[in-house]
Amino acid sequence: DKRETWCRLPPFGLSGSDLTDLSTYMPGTQSCLQNHEWYKHGSCSGLGAGDYFALAAGITAKFASTAPGRFITENVGRTVSLRDFLAAFETEFGRGSGRSAGLRCANVGGRPMLAELRLELAATLRKPEELDRSLLPSNGNCPESFLILAPRSR
Questions:
Q1: In this predicted model, what pLDDT tens digit does every residue of 39-86 receive, in sequence order?
Q2: pTM
Q3: Which of 130, 65, 73 has its CA nearest to residue 92?
Q4: DSSP letter for each residue of 49-112
């Protein structure tokens, strides 16, 4: 399960229309990220592939409507402070909840850029509406300021 082999992993039953819908929420489908995500996380979720990715898409859509989701959208193309992002996170989810935002940055052209946002969710999460109460502590590697770029289009 290495990035360069994701597209060669065995099919797991995701329909073409499900994959098309998923590409809206997971730009990484360009590199077959869904295969990695299914085999590393989804296959042990107790859900079928379509249900697993539908839940993930629902959580992504729900998160996009929150204060930190809007912060990301409103700051595409800008360098932002980690403090401001975490403030938006805590405005939405409460004091101390910023610890659950695992921000991963990558060096792009000598500048740190937000590459991934990880949320640790409760194992019992089955509906996007349950997002609010499922946050658990996490870590990240982003410095005090970083760039937010729009995902590449297909």
A1: 998 998 889 999 999 988 888 888 899 999 999 999 999 999 999 999
A2: 0.74
A3: 65
A4: HHHHHHHHHHHHHHHHTSHHHHHHHHTTTSEEEHHHHHHHHHHHH-TTGGGGEEEEEEEETTEE
